[in-house]
Specification:
11 strands, 53% strand, single chain, mainly beta, 2 helices, elongated, Lipocalin
Length: 191
């Protein structure tokens, strides 16, 4: 009887230790951007970025699981051209007046050994939600010398089909491509 109680206590401690590996991280808005690339009439590439974001990540490196919630301020879009920014904010594209944010929520983390390779989840944009997979181009963690905390981050890529989110302006005349490459630069600080 004493052995089974002792074994149960060790199991409970071991299970608690494994569960304790899960950590919360808050998005660092100074080191997080979502950048898009879209072909213009099949020739040059239009680029822009959303400059404001917020969110949280839960990461358990031992169990190789996690959850990410990132919200983009759609009004923070910047292409370097004010008229283009205003057109992208209009109902022709992102309809920022009615849909001021876009959100990615993912909870399917895929690892290759200890290396994070992708996160699958849902993107909500312009009131439509569709599944997407974001591939990790690079991911790592470091101890921040000033904050004295762990910071994890990397570069991620995906391609979204904008018509799936009812962003259809210019598709008929190929003014802008339907497939849009999105690169996400993200860093998050352990809480």
């Amino acid at each position: 009887m004493k052995k089974s109680v002792f074994a149960l206590a060790i199991f409970a401690l071991a299970t608690g230790a494994v569960q304790a590996q899960s950590a919360q991280y808050k998005i660092d808005p100074n080191h997080t951007r979502a950048i898009f690339e879209a072909k213009h009439f099949g020739t040059s590439t239009n680029r822009g970025q959303w400059e404001k974001s917020e969110g949280e990540i839960t990461l358990d490196k031992t169990a190789k699981t996690g959850k990410v919630d990132i919200t983009l301020d759609m009004n923070s879009i910047s292409t370097g051209v004010a008229a283009f920014n205003n057109h992208l904010k209009s109902a022709d594209f992102f309809d920022v007046a009615n849909h001021p944010t876009a959100k990615f929520s993912g909870d399917k983390f895929k690892f290759d050994g200890d290396k994070l390779v992708e996160v699958a989840g849902n993107l909500t944009l312009r009131g439509k939600t569709n599944p997407i997979v974001i591939k990790a181009v690079h991911f790592g963690c470091y101890n921040h010398p000033t904050l004295k905390r762990e910071v994890c981050g990397g570069d991620f890529e995906t391609v979204i089909t904008r018509s799936a989110y009812d962003v259809n302006w210019g598709l008929a005349n190929r003014a802008t491509s339907d497939d849009i490459k999105v690169t996400i630069q993200v860093e998050a600080v352990k809480q």
